[in-house]
Amino acid sequence: MAAVGFGVVGVGTWGERHAATYAYRPEVELTLVCDLNEQRAREIAVQYGAQGWTTDYREVVEREDIQAVSVVTPDFAHREIAVAAAQAGKHVLCEKPLATTLEDCEAIIEAARQAGVKLMVDFHNRFNPPFLKMKRALEEGELGEPLMFYVRLNDTIFVPTQMLSWGGQSTVGWFLGSHAFDLIRWLSGAEVRRVYAVSRSVVLKQRGLDTPDFFQTTLELTNGATAQVENCWVVAETAPVVFDFKCELVATKGTMYADPSHHRMVQKYTPEEATYPDVIVFPEVYGKPTGFAIESINHFVDCVLHDREPLITGEDGLQATKIVLAMEESARTGQPVEVG
Ligand SMILES: NC(=O)c1ccc[n+]([C@@H]2O[C@H](COP(=O)([O-])OP(=O)(O)OC[C@H]3O[C@@H](n4cnc5c(N)ncnc54)[C@H](O)[C@@H]3O)[C@@H](O)[C@H]2O)c1
To answer: What SS3 state is found at 29?
Structure first.
């Protein structure tokens, strides 16, 4: 079988992971990578053996030998590329959040529906082994019914101030909250009905970024369960891992705790720093990209190759966006917000 052509638009920090995953799969041809930063596009194309590079996403969507496109541009810059790719008949893997407005989400979903192409949103925690254990325990009835969740997903201040050049144009709600909300929807099997949130803007504002430091959010779910969610972008840079992820579930029969960021499976101490190197997100095994973040991208590849429906849909992306919008509105108004 001839290799199936894939393209990646946006090859910054995370787009590189998409390119690396496609490059490793023998059934896939990494045909074209695209970035507004030409030097970055060229570097990634050379490093991962892409056929070529471009700075214009239209070249990617117009290529007849490309069947699928990853959209890995900043949070607010997914719609135009995802819609154009779907309208050109390409399957689309869109990074989370699907988009930052309901109109943008709906336009992407509608373009994919009309073109009959697959649309997946990369909420890769549905492939994260600790959370799969929780999901399995719930499905098998070991825990009973969910009562309350606690989810903490925070980043050190390195992320909005140094890693992202566009931190001030997004929020920790879009960047991390969308993951947390999708995780809760998926684990609980329920929708979010009402949101209460508070946020503060102190530290990032002093650094010249017009974006909140954190949100603390309470969710009420349609099955009666509740969730407390914490998303913060100003954790001290000396933390041993750039992100801090906890998920706790108290259910009617059982309780489960997951700590996939500070699990201390590997601890490294050098004269400069103490760190817990990654062993589950995207570790390499003799050059092969592995880890749950890669499994998510591989799932999209498998869906394209074998004509299967992705486990994570555009509708999942839309629901997460609705919750982030409700969270931001609640934090702004001081009132609870119903999620439509
Ligand atoms: N699944 C995850 O856990 C995860 C992790 C990190 C980032 N992300 C998501 O991936 C997306 C990208 O994040 P990142 O951290 O890689 O950001 P980044 O800034 O490192 O990379 C984005 C790249 O997109 C390029 N770009 C912007 N507009 C473009 C356009 N119109 N055409 C072509 N290239 C364009 C930029 O030049 C940049 O290189 C975001 O939506 C982010 O939330 C997801």
So the answer is: strand
CATH of 4-117, one of 3.40.190.290, 3.40.50.720, 3.40.190.170, 3.40.228.10: 3.40.50.720
From the CA of 261, how far away is ligand 1's center (Å)?
Answer: 22
Share of residues in the chain with pLDDT > 70 (%): 100
Output the CA–CA distances (angstroms, integers) from residue 239 to 57, 76, 243, 274, in the order listed. Answer: 37, 28, 8, 8
Q: What is the pLDDT of residue 1?
A: 67
pTM: 0.98
> Two tokens at 77?
């810059």
Architecture per CATH, 125-285+319-338: 2-Layer Sandwich (3.30)
**Which protein residues are within 6 Å of ligand 1, measured from CB?**
9-10, 12-15, 34-37, 40, 57, 72-75, 77, 95-96, 122, 124, 164-165, 175
Choose one of 9, 13, 105, 178 to mutate for the ligand 1 pocket test, by most ligand atoms within 8 angstroms of C-beta: 13
